[in-house]
Amino acid sequence: MGSIDIPQTQTVALVRDLGGSVEFKTDYPVPTPGRNEVLAKVLYTGVCQSDLHTRAGTAAGPDGNPITQIKLPHVGGHEGIGQIISLGPDIMHGTGIKVGGLVGIRFSSRICRRCEFCLAGTEQYCVNSTNHLHHEDGSFQEYIALDADYLTVLPDDVDPVVMGPVLCAGLTAYKAVLNANLRPGHWVVVVGAGGGLGHLAVQYARAQGALVIAVDTGPGKRDFICEIGAQEFIDFAKEDPIKRVQEITGLGAHAAIVTAGNAKAFAHACEMLRVGGSLSCVGIPPGRPCLETPICTIVIKGLRITGNLVGSLKECMEAVDLVRRGVVKPVIKVRKFKELPQVYEEMERGDIAGRVVLQIAQ
Ligand SMILES: [Zn+2]
Ligand SMILES: [Zn+2]
């Protein structure tokens, strides 16, 4: 890679007020990489439901409360793939960090490495962390400065077009599957299976040898979901999913992964589980609704309930590797950067099967 002219300004997709519209600003400053940072040119980025929540003003903040601490103006995007174009001072040698290398732009941007959660390898919960949703400008821009010490260094041979959605949707889906403790032949229900997160959860669950019952609705979803490997499809608008899961599994499913942002879906999922079953919560319903499952059901059935906020960098690299090896195949549709406002509208209507990826670099 030869020397690259780095411009002073760039185009970003900016939201001035939460709940406001997306505006393209063409004279936003290009960051200068500071000590131990790299500057990357953003090639592609996925569009996540939480970007939409943030734009719409319905997101939860870092403490789980409705957002009060989001940096404004807000530049979203946390499923980006970039290429390093320059290195700031003091980058350590021997770390695989090089100009021309591919890097991920993920939800977690910086961590402290010293708190209890960092030390435990669960650094996504770091008490001193920052992320590309609440605190720092994300991948809806042409250039980004990233912390070299917590850099997502990707192998040179990955396909940058498909890899973006793996970094948030894929990682979260992979983590939810790990938390479901699946064994070969176990039944897992994936609710919202046709969406960006759901279609990856179906495939990561299949990679563990589990049998998948996909729940979704809408034209074309059945064919789409069966093509990516689900054994059964339930159209929740046409059939009773709880009854159907009991019919298919006999005793109920071993696990349920709910990616839908709908509170009722979580309560229904608990009803689908067998004794000792686990519920992996992934979707975040807007507002602050509670899980409507009676405590007696949780106690008597011995259910296990986990929350899933992305995953660690190590788990991210495992999720990336399964895609790199062709075991999991993100289904994506590439759109232009300028189409982001329309993409948000389509996501609000639930029209998108798989994931939209925006092409950022021209
Ligand atoms: Zn996300
Ligand atoms: Zn920490």
From TrEMBL:
Positions of the Enoyl reductase (ER) domain: 19-358
Source lineage: Eukaryota, Fungi, Dikarya, Ascomycota, Pezizomycotina
Pfam families reported for this sequence: ADH_N, ADH_zinc_N
Listed SUPFAM superfamilies: GroES-like, NAD(P)-binding Rossmann-fold domains
Superkingdom of origin: Eukaryota
Similarity annotation: Belongs to the zinc-containing alcohol dehydrogenase family.
Origin species: Penicillium steckii
Keyword flag Lyase: no
Name of the protein described by the UniProt record: Enoyl reductase (ER) domain-containing protein
Signal peptide, first to last residue: none
Keywords: Metal-binding, NAD, Oxidoreductase, Zinc
Listed cofactors: Zn(2+)
